[in-house]
Specification:
The structure is a single chain. The chain has 558 residues and is of the alpha+beta class. The chain folds into three domains: 83 residues, Phosphorylase Kinase, domain 1; 193 residues, Transferase(Phosphotransferase), domain 1, CATH 1.10.510.10; 201 residues, no CATH class. It contains 16 helices and 22 strands. The strands form five sheets. The chain has an eight-stranded mixed β-sheet with strand order 12-19-20-21-22-17-16-13, with helices on both faces. Strands 1-2-3-4-6-5 form a six-stranded antiparallel β-sheet, with helices on one face. Strands 7-9-10 form a three-stranded antiparallel β-sheet. Strand 21 and strand 22 form a beta hairpin. Helix 3 runs antiparallel to helix 5 and helix 3 packs antiparallel against helix 9. It is globular and about 70 Å long.
């Protein structure tokens, strides 16, 4: 076994970045864990090969497309903080996300249908946002999908990475200036292989290949040689995922076949349209436990390989990645690992409080229902019904309580148990409970928040572990985990207290700025209604986030 080669850049500085370790290597450079010393935060720093800065055409494209990618505000696109040049070296500084990537996850085998649909849906939304901004990714593959798991919530949050070297939508083909392709063989669209015009539909094709692998464990066109894989992409009929994994519903094949059509005109108009049909088709699975390969929430099957969690271990890519066009295929595989933290939820109500009166907000376009009716409908749903077409009855009831400006941007949220009471066991809380309705909303960051998770809990049983679950306890776990002091969020970016509606106390509220990610986070709960809300501003603007809270906290009448 050979020792890891020493990288000469480790321990040095590149502009304001102090390089601490290698995260990953690929054909387009090296990704390092670095500290941005002027802000005191960790970043993933991609350093491109030195010769590229001397190519005037490449340098101009790099600077232009990096600026375009950095301007995209979307919760599922890995944020780019800066792109530039120092001493003749091109670099991109990105958010550092601790977790794993989809490539590593899939080495443990295919995913549960609901899990696959959730991840594909998030990546699809990221791609549509990029396409709307005029960018085509061209290298959508599992290794470029980062999966960050919230400590207490347990739900995976997907980031699509490597947007610094994308392609403008109006470029003529999938070729670079030298006649070489960007892309990875197992996920490459026919038009890229044939050097035809490329647009966002090529990314949709690649996403469908990723979806097929998530569901079956293998890429759609697994062949013995690279040449055979190329020809299969161009000529062969899309394979049947149902035949490869019989417990999947028949309906999934038609959805995949459309997204994998050889003619881009025959594919879906948008990636989200494909992801929506995929989710609906997978909801037809008659035996969720069998289709998932293991019981929901039980983790991988016994004997499955563990998923690496260390951000300092570069993933060895297993998908083919060599340069095509002139006869060879060059991989653009650069793995970015990093850090994304959603505050833990649980505990007991704060002992010290600040009372915050709030104003009114807008009404919802959804059918109205009272909080009590929402809880009654939600409590009657089985676990299988909660994984049906969105929105189910419980989610529709919860949607009806949201203002119109927020409800229109919501999808199904996580149903993982949340800590909210009981005794502390080590660093976690013993009392956990799964929500009866859960919404993940992604409003524009100009509203003050770009991620909002709304969950409702029943007042009855359903606890995991010991100890009583309360909404106040859920907020208090954030206070405990992040050591947030008592105070008033209207004047402090780090405080916890209580808030009022109509002169009546409603529940606990906590705000803080995550020191690792720079995100501003604000969470609040409605004690008697069993509703917990957590909002995030990825720009790290606590003032804008508090304004969002003032405008939206009154979506449930006191």
């Amino acid at each position: 076994m050979t020792a890891e080669r020493v990288d000469a850049r480790v321990g040095t500085e590149l502009g304001p970045y102090r390089i601490e370790a290698v995260i990953g290597r690929g054909g387009m450079g090296v990704v390092y864990l670095a500290e941005q010393t002027n802000l005191g935060r960790n970043v993933a720093l991609k350093v491109l090969p030195s010769g590229l800065a001397e190519d005037a055409d490449f340098r101009a494209r790099f600077e232009r497309e990096s600026r375009m990618a950095a301007a995209i505000e979307h919760p599922n696109i890995l944020p780019i903080y800066e792109a530039g040049e120092v001493d003749g070296v091109l670099f991109i500084a990105m958010r550092y996300v601790r977790g794993t990537d989809l490539e590593t996850r899939l080495r443990a085998g295919p995913m549960a249908p609901a899990e696959a649909a959730r991840i594909i849906g998030q990546v699809a939304a990221a791609l549509d946002a990029a396409h709307a901004a005029g960018l085509v990714h061209r290298d959508v593959k599992p290794a470029n999908v980062l999966m960050a798991t919230a400590d207490d919530d347990g739900g995976d949050h997907a980031y699509l990475a490597d947007f610094g070297l994308t392609k403008q939508r109006d470029s003529q083909t999938g070729l670079t200036r030298t006649g070489s392709f960007m892309g990875t063989l197992d996920y490459m669209a026919p038009e890229q292989i044939e050097a035809k015009p490329v647009d966002g539909r090529a990314d949709q094709y690649a996403l469908a290949c990723v979806a097929y692998r998530c569901l079956t464990g293998d890429p759609p066109y697994a062949r013995e040689t690279d040449a055979a894989v190329l020809m299969a992409h161009v000529r062969d009929t899309p394979p049947s995922a149902h035949r490869a994994r019989p417990e999947l519903p028949d309906a999934i094949d038609a959805v995949l076949a459309r997204a994998l059509a050889k003619d881009p005109e025959a594919r879906y108009p948008r990636c989200v349209a494909f992801a929506t049909d995929l989710r609906h088709a997978l909801a037809a699975t008659t035996d969720p436990d069998r289709a998932s390969g293991f019981a929901p929430g039980a983790g991988p099957p016994s004997g499955a390989p563990a998923i690496a969690e260390s951000p300092l271990q570069p993933t060895q890519a297993t998908d083919r990645g060599r340069l095509i066009g002139t006869g060879a295929i060059v991989g653009a595989v650069v793995l970015a690992a990093g850090f994304f933290l959603v505050a833990g939820l649980g505990g007991s109500p704060p002992s010290t409080s600040s009372t915050l009166p709030l104003g009114a907000a807008g009404s919802s376009p959804h059918a109205s229902s009272s909080p009590a009716e929402s809880a009654a409908v939600s409590a009657s749903l089985s676990a299988t019904e909660r994984l049906s077409v969105f929105p189910n009855a419980a989610e529709e009831s919860l949607l009806s309580l949201l203002p119109a400006t927020l409800a229109d941007d919501c999808d199904r949220g996580s149903y993982e148990p949340v800590a909210g009471g009981g005794r502390i066991e080590g660093s976690s809380f013993s009392g956990k409970k799964a929500p009866i309705a859960s919404l993940a909303c992604r409003p524009l960051v100009t509203t003050g928040a770009n991620e909002v998770l709304v969950r409702q809990f029943s007042s009855g049983s359903g606890l995991v572990g010991s100890g009583a679950f309360t909404i106040g306890g859920a907020v208090s776990v954030i206070v405990f985990t992040h050591k947030v002091p008592p105070g008033d969020c209207s004047v402090s970016k780090r405080a916890n207290g209580r808030f009022q509606l109509g002169g009546e106390d409603q529940g606990a509220v906590v705000c803080y700025v995550d020191t690792a990610t720079g995100d501003a986070i604000l969470a609040w709960g409605y004690d008697t209604l069993g509703i917990l809300v957590q909002a995030t501003n990825q720009r790290g603007d606590p003032t804008a986030l508090y304004d969002f809270f003032l405008k939206n906290a009154r979506f449930i009448a006191p």
